[in-house]
Write a structure and sequence with these properties.
Elements: H1 17-28, E1 34-41, E2 51-56, E3 59-61, E4 63-68, E5 71-77, E6 83-85, E7 90-95, E8 105-110, H2 120-124, E9 128-133, E10 148-156, E11 185-193, E12 200-203, E13 209-214, E14 220-227, E15 242-245, E16 250-256, E17 271-282, E18 291-296
Antiparallel strand pairs: 1-8, 2-7, 3-6, 4-5, 9-18, 10-17, 11-14, 11-16, 12-13, 12-15, 13-14, 15-16
């Protein structure tokens, strides 16, 4: 899970609730806190639990030992505050408990610099990040079914349609932040004969080409979803021209662009951080994929 170090005040109203909580935790961090006592040897010959003394250049740390038979089985800090503060050098000593034939040995484990919670980037020490998504069926109508896909990508800050400008990237309200959204190019077509998806569609006047991603069954006015790439070229279709499909189908374009159908995301915006090419996956209404991407930093 990606984490951040929050630099603003916890009272800053522009911070999210999670960021405010993160800043509160950062502010409450205690430097030089002991987070654990590691028992290296339990010793032998104890008749009662020995006392534990923590020595070092900090203060207020306290721990207790537990006996199992004649050996120390564990050493525990008490409450959270028992870890003390200000330690850079520390040692652990045992006393009492009878006359052990072999004294127990333990060592203190110091928390990260600044204390636990001061900087989650250091606390977690993560070198990899995993992104996971599980689209189910058509995922509220935003995911194409009846066709295949072979690329999965990580895109940063894509914009809503109609927001593609330098100024738009300065305003959070311009970014698409939904859980799912449609980013396909769309056109409305008066269909005279049904199209078959995954084939090429070609404009009779413009000569423009594109791959047909989705098309409702039947004839009449329908919204088609399509995409272009270097193979098809990027010639624009024209309103009023007839398009034909390489696998069958024909119709006349009545509307192009965002007005032809609801599009939630402008696919030509945002920063492409990662792309993964996979074997083709054909989707149906009844299936759910479990897509995982692991990025090692």
């Amino acid at each position: 899970m990606p984490v951040e170090f929050v630099t603003d005040s916890a009272l800053d109203p522009t911070l999210t609730a999670a960021q405010q909580q993160q800043k509160t935790i950062q502010n409450a961090a205690v430097k030089g806190r002991i987070i654990n006592i590691q028992l290296d040897s339990g010793g032998t010959g104890y008749t009662s639990a020995p006392s534990v003394t923590i020595y070092g250049d900090g203060s207020s740390a306290a721990a207790t030992a537990t006996l199992s038979g004649t050996s120390v089985s564990k050493v525990e800090l008490g409450a959270y505050d028992s870890g003390g503060s200000g330690y850079k050098q520390v040692s652990v000593a045992f006393s009492g408990g009878g006359s052990p034939t072999k004294p127990a040995k333990a060592r203190a484990v110091l928390g990260p610099e600044g204390g636990p919670g001061a900087d989650p980037r250091k606390d977690l020490k993560a070198s990899s990040v995993m992104f996971n998504v599980q689209p189910a069926g058509n995922n509220n109508g935003t995911w194409v079914v009846g066709n295949d896909f072979r690329q999965v990508a990580v895109l940063k800050n894509p914009l809503k349609p109609g927001q593609d400008s330098a100024d738009a990237y300065k305003h959070a309200s311009s970014f698409f932040t939904g859980a799912d959204g449609n980013a396909a190019k769309v056109m409305k077509v008066g269909i005279s004969t049904e199209f078959v998806v995954d084939g090429l569609i070609t404009g009779g006047t413009s000569g423009a080409k594109a791959y047909l991603d989705s098309c409702p069954s039947g004839t009449g006015d329908k919204t088609l979803k399509f995409h272009k790439n270097e193979t098809t070229g990027f010639v624009a279709f024209q309103v009023g021209e007839t398009i034909t499909g390489s696998l069958g189908g024909s119709g006349t374009i009545s509307t192009l662009g965002d007005s032809a159908g609801v599009r939630d995301v402008d696919p030509m915006t945002g920063d492409l951080l990662y792309i993964d090419n996979r074997a083709a996956v054909t989707r149906t209404e009844s299936q759910t994929e479990d897509l995982k991407i692991v990025i090692t930093l």
